[in-house]
Structure formats: structure tokens, C-alpha cells
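task queued by scheduler; priority normal; single chain, no ligands, no partner chains; default sampling; output format set to C-alpha cells
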Amino acid sequence: MVYRIGVLLLAVLFVAGCSDETENDDTFVAGEILLTQDLQTLTAAEAGGLGAALGIEAAFGVEVLRIEYATTDANGEPTMASGALAIPVGAGPVPILSYQHGTIVRKSDAPSVSADGERALGNLMASVGYIVAMPDYLGLGTGPGLHPYVHSATQASATIDMLRAVRTYLGQESIETDGRILLTGISQGAHATLAAQQVMESQLSSEFEVAAVAALSGPYDISGAMYDIMVSEEPYDNAYYLPYVTLAYDEVYDLFESPSEYFAEPYAQTIPPLFDGQNGAGTINDAMPRVPSEALQPDLLAAVTSDENHPYRNVLRENDLYDGWTPQAPMRLYHCAGDDVVPISNTALAAERLAARGADVTFIDPIPTAGHDFLCFSLAYRDALPWIAGL
């Protein structure tokens, strides 16, 4: 293994402890590399293992490494995050494709740690000729703290700062790109993809050229479609989404004084400790009621459902991704109608609103009978990857 530990690790700690009267803030550089670590060297056949299911043939071997880099937390304070980088060997100047992963809770399931999860899809994309960045986001992988789940701003900043670190690394290694950035992601990663696109196009267009976006089955309508699921009286197989969002948004927005203000007993005592980064979704689901709203304080549930301007609902709206911006890059938004985890209405609404603002967006249902599953995702990428290659 190869380690390259930057002196910025000390700088981040130093800046975090400085008072406003110091003049040392310029020592922090978002996206600066703190560490790199070799993870895998794969043949084309090994990296392209998922290719048969997608009808895609691998062409290149792939080298995979972890990058830890400087970024900022939800309060704009210095912190660090990690991600995986997959480089096709001998591909020549190619685009950088940023792949944003779906929902995970356990830190060790992130792409820079687990070779068994979504890193395999990133490796496949690299094997066909893309340099693939796979950010873990804040609080996952080797990053500290609770992951700010479906928080648009930090998903964007962690993704963008990962790309800055990737560019630095490629420059150090004399690996050329063609300058273009492609964005893609599944589920939460689709939400993160649009969040990053919005910031890159509206604030950083001189730094990043976003050439195309393909997003799959994303929860873009946090305040509508996803909110309706969480406050309903119907069972839901992913009940852990509710405490994940609630704990994350409480940490970001300081909504409550203690878990007992939003969780009913015994959940106020039993649920928060499970989000320590060591437990998987199954463990947390087993500790939740089948109907997610039954874990909430009845008074809070009544207040939230009766007041459209309740602070909790306001912060949900703040993280919707279909209003207030006009995408510039061509987009394909995929979703299968049989999805009962993230309803297709999320993508239908996002596509309609963004198209009305002038976006070049195509809404595709690859197979109506598929759900939030590998069949839907594989058929979507069977279309998306050739489309991106054609651009």
C-alpha cells in the first residue's frame, strides 16, 4: 500500500481551533489531498464483472485507490471526507465520471472501504474508459461524525471537493483527462448528483464543465413524495429512512433539543445510538415499527402534518431539487414505475419542473414492472452509459 499524507491534516485541525481574530484561514484548501491509499488493481475481466448483466464489455484494467481530502461540514467548518477513485489503465485522455452511491448507514459500506458494494459499479464504468470518482459523502467511509443524509448542500460540497482532489491527484501522476465532467448516481446518489450539478453549473461553471447527467430513482421531492410516505399510516419496508433524515436534519439545522422531542418512547432511547456508523439498515429497521410515523411523538406528528410551514417541513423543502435552478447539461432521469421505495412521482415531478424551466431533460421509465432494484438500475445504465459515450 502507498500512503501520501498531506500536511493539511494538521492545518485543518489548526484552523478549526482558530479564533476569528487569526489570519490563518487561508491554510485550509477545500479539496486538498490528505491521504491516498492503493486499494485494488484489477484486470479488465475483474473490473467488468457487472458488465454481462448490462451488456457492456470491459476494455481496460483498473487501478483503485482511496483519497481522503479536505472539505467543509454543514456549518462551513473544515473537516475531511473520503472516496474511491478508479482509473482505467492506458485509456488516454477521458472524461471524469463522478458516481454518487445510494443510501448506506454503516461507514464501512462506503465505496472507499467496501469492494463488495457500489464500488463494483464504479469499477465497471472505469473499465469501459472513464476516470471514476466515488465520493463517500460526509460521515461515511473514513469521515467523522453522522452522515448528513439527503442534505443537498453537503452532498454537493463533498462531491465537488472530491473532484478537486481527483484533479490534483491526476496532475501529480501525469494522467490526462479531456476536461469534461459527467455526473451519475442511484437513489440517494441521484439526489446528490442533481445537488452537485446545481452548484457546479450555477456557481462553479468556470471551474467545471458538466457535459452530461444521468440520475436513477432519486428522492428529489423530499418535502412531498417522501414526506407523504413517512407520515402515512401505512407500513414501509425502509422505515429507517425516517430517523436517518430526522437525526441528520436535526444536526444540520438544530431543530430540537433532544431526541425525546421528536421520537416516542422507547424509540427516543433505542434508535439514535444505532446511527453510530457501525450498524446496517437491517439492524435499524428491526428496531423500528413497520409504520415509520409510529416512532414519532404524536404531538410532533400532529403539528407537522397540520402546519405546512412547520420548521421541519421547511427544511425538507430546502432539500428538494426541482425548483429554483435551470440545468445546463443534457440530463436523463430514470425511474421504474414499480418502485415502492422511492416513488416514481419524485422523478416525474423533477423532470416536469426542470423541463418547464428550459432544461434539456429526458424522463425514462426503463421497465414499468421493475422497482428500486438491480433490474431497474441495470436497464437504466444499459441506456445511460451508451448515451453518455455518444455525447
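post-processing summary
- The CA atoms of residues 139 and 145 lie 5 Å apart.
- Residues 1-25 have pLDDT under 50 and may be disordered.
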